[in-house]
């Protein structure tokens, strides 16, 4: 497939956004998930504002005509007219004569978010980085002994150390995806892999489809290419596949970035049928798929896992990004991209602008540990189950009005707050010595103020202490709320 060119100038909204819209049937289905109250126009308006705040309906999306939504909801047009008027009055909607009604986001005046970086003096619930797995030290010693066999050469392996490429390919075969070493391109971590793939496949102005919420550094990488970001919502319950398919058909993005395995940050897991549908819609749209499998090996609860998304790929449009940072240790900066051999060659050429190759000693260490991957997975699963359950228990006891997800794998849970105060809470939490990740960090345009992401990579006693501090910070936030610049009723 050729690199996609940009598609510009199509039906741009009054706030400068791209050509995205949602039809009445889809919006009615999303509204129908919200509690019903009276007057009904207010229930509709509050449901739509909640969808905007949560990122499930992106900003700069054109809403359906009043008549279309009224017919889909089975209500009078006057009811929808009143709902749209409420949304305009509360700064969720921008309507102009002849241009339709477009979703926008009120300015709540919460200020800058806490940085998405570790804070040494705090209990860190924001960065999902587990300690090194048992056996790492012994593996590094064996790797050092093997290094003698390599020091006579140049030490540059542009595609990756051959024995590591074999080990990674073997693991994909074990997971049900036939793979040869020639399909593996080793990178310095998953983040480099994502950035390389996006830089190679995107031109300025191309459309990129991402989830909301999602991994923020992937969004940053897409922005650096000059791409136009489009979003589709995902919740702990999963993806709305009809809405996702509609996004591919309507926007025809050049590329989509998704995290189908214990999605970051919601923890959702895409099933086999959904994975097949995802690849099918990408093929119809002519889009590449960059699939982030950074935590795919971190299942906590028992049960069969779906095959990798690339198992449904027939024409080389799926680039799968993996890493050992979450499974083994963040200090091992080893990741990879699984793709076609011709794409591996293109990635190697693109990489030369950034670096030449990865560290041989790290790659040897990872090769040893991957030979014992089933033991490593079992060890991680036990640790994470213990920590996850301890964090959930502490939240139930100290913050019972929060609604945390219960992910079946990964490193984080996604907690819904009763009030849209995540940014203010993160600021207050620093004064109490705890560092959560505010929901808007994982959005594209300031949404998700009703969520925080909490990593359960610390031991249970530390997590209990962290939740005590978080509860104190939450009480402080509610006692001294940040006053929004405009009225916000959600």
Calculate the terminal CA-CA distance, rounded to whole Å: 45 Å
Largest sheet: 8 strands, mixed
The CATH topology annotation of the largest domain reads as: Aspartate Aminotransferase, domain 2
- The CATH class of the largest domain turns out to be Alpha Beta
Mean pLDDT value? 87
Strand order in space, largest sheet: 4-11-10-9-8-5-6-7
CATH level 4 superfamily of the largest domain:
Type I PLP-dependent aspartate aminotransferase-like (Major domain)
Q: DSSP strand (E) fraction? A: 5-15%
Structural class call reads alpha/beta
**Helix coverage percent:** 25-40%
**Which ranges are low-confidence, i.e. pLDDT below 50, for 5 or more consecutive residues?**
2-18, 108-116, 483-490
Strand elements, count: 16
* Large-scale geometry: globular
Q: Would you identify the CATH architecture of the largest domain? A: 3-Layer(aba) Sandwich
Number of helices: 15
Total tally of structural domains: 3
**Rg, Å, rounded:** 23 Å
